[in-house]
Design goal:
InterPro entries: His_Pase_superF_clade-1, His_PPase_superfam, PGM_Phosphatase. It contains 4 helices and 7 strands; from the N terminus they run βαβαβαβαβββ. The chain is of the alpha/beta class. The two termini are 18 Å apart.
């Protein structure tokens, strides 16, 4: 039996003084605290003597910057996988996240017709499928070791829900995936045997959530 761990790491805090829903927009980079978060995760993983043999990130700048110190700590080069990218969102570029009352304007109503899909962006199922495909490829390529995949909150959260055989539609306020948190998927051969959640940079995050362990 071969034991493999794939860590899904959310990127660190982003410099976003305008509080824009930046989604896949290029040019959004880590804040100073975001860089500190990434360095903290790198120190935590390397200090624990983890057997990390690959670091692969979403193509977006904030994910690449989060991956860099972790790859450096293990003397690796950061890989890129487009399947780890942020969810597509038709509210991208707006400030609706910070000012939700804007949704009262009729122009946005057609996008809200089905929150279970969701109708305003990439389907939850599509996100989970592409993320799980990336996890499977990383697991097979580096069987018996640990891999860090740097992605984004929503894709990571729906991937966890999918592995736990839960419905993908959810309350965004209840996501357990804070900045620079690790959602660690533990496999024995091809079987998922556990999901571990941790926050090595939690003391730097704006909001904290409790860790958890669950078994498939």
């Amino acid at each position: 039996m071969v034991s493999t761990t794939v860590h899904l790491l959310r990127h660190g805090e982003v410099h976003n003084p305008g509080r824009v829903l930046y989604g896949r927009i290029a040019g959004y980079h880590l804040s100073e605290r975001g860089h500190e978060m990434a360095r903290t995760v790198a120190t935590a993983l390397s200090g624990q003597g983890r057997d990390v043999v690959a670091v692969i990130a979403s193509p977006l700048q904030r994910a690449q910057e989060t991956a860099a110190p972790i790859a450096a700590a293990f003397k690796l080069t950061t890989g890129t996988d487009d399947r780890l990218v942020e969810a597509g969102n038709r509210f991208e570029g707006t400030t609706i996240g910070a000012k939700p009352w804007q949704l009262l304007h009729p122009r946005w109503w057609p996008l809200l017709r089905n929150p279970r899909t969701p109708s305003w962006g990439e389907a939850y199922r599509e996100q989970a499928d592409r993320m799980q495909a990336a996890v499977d490829d990383a697991r097979r390529a580096h069987a018996g070791h640990e891999v860090v995949l740097v992605s984004h909150q929503l894709p990571i959260w729906v991937t966890r829900l999918a592995y736990e055989n839960k419905k993908l539609w959810h309350d965004p306020r209840k996501r357990q995936c804070t900045l620079c948190s690790l959602t660690s998927l533990h496999f024995d051969d091809d079987e998922l045997v556990g999901i571990e959640y941790s926050e090595p940079a939690g003391h730097l995050a704006a909001s904290l959530s409790k860790g958890a362990w669950s078994v498939k």
